[in-house]
Write a structure and sequence with these properties.
This protein has 141 residues and is α+β, with helices and mostly antiparallel strands. It is built from four helices and five strands, in the order E-E-H-E-H-E-H-E-H.
Length: 141
């Protein structure tokens, strides 16, 4: 199977289509079977299209890079769990408490927990810095 980007000469519509072989396009075009899905014109031409090449070497490198990133995230998770206080779903509330009362409670550890994207955006609007870190399950490879 081969995929071509096709273009209608009549209405300039671009669309993709699959063919059994590279010669199949010409065969169907000559029989006037190909038509534009937008205007139904049979004035269709092939456009340039970048091939999608999957290389085994690149795939292995991608898997290796993925594993390295996952391992680094696990390291971050262990560091955070060891050095910060878990506040669960109350992260936004606790972050505000730390931020606005920082002068009073200097001995408090940093915190981590769960927050929605909306809560994180609201914290940022208030000038309260926080980070979103993907939480990798320890049991995953």
């Amino acid at each position: 199977m081969i995929k071509y980007r096709l273009s209608c000469k009549n209405c300039s519509n671009n669309f993709d289509s699959w063919f059994a072989t590279s010669k199949e396009f010409e065969k169907l075009k000559n029989k006037k079977i190909l038509s534009c899905p937008k205007c139904n014109s049979i004035k269709i031409k092939k456009s340039l299209m970048a091939p999608s090449i999957i290389n085994r070497k690149n795939n292995i490198l991608d898997q290796k890079k993925h594993k390295e990133i996952k391992n680094k995230l696990k390291e971050y998770k262990k560091f955070i769990e060891k050095n910060f206080e878990y506040v669960g779903n109350n992260f936004a509330y606790e972050a505000r408490s730390v931020h606005y009362n920082n002068k009073i409670n200097k001995k408090r550890k940093g915190i981590y927990g769960k927050a929605t994207i909306k809560e994180v955006k609201e914290l940022a609007e208030e000038g309260i810095e926080s980070e979103i870190i993907p939480w990798v399950n320890d049991k995953e490879n």
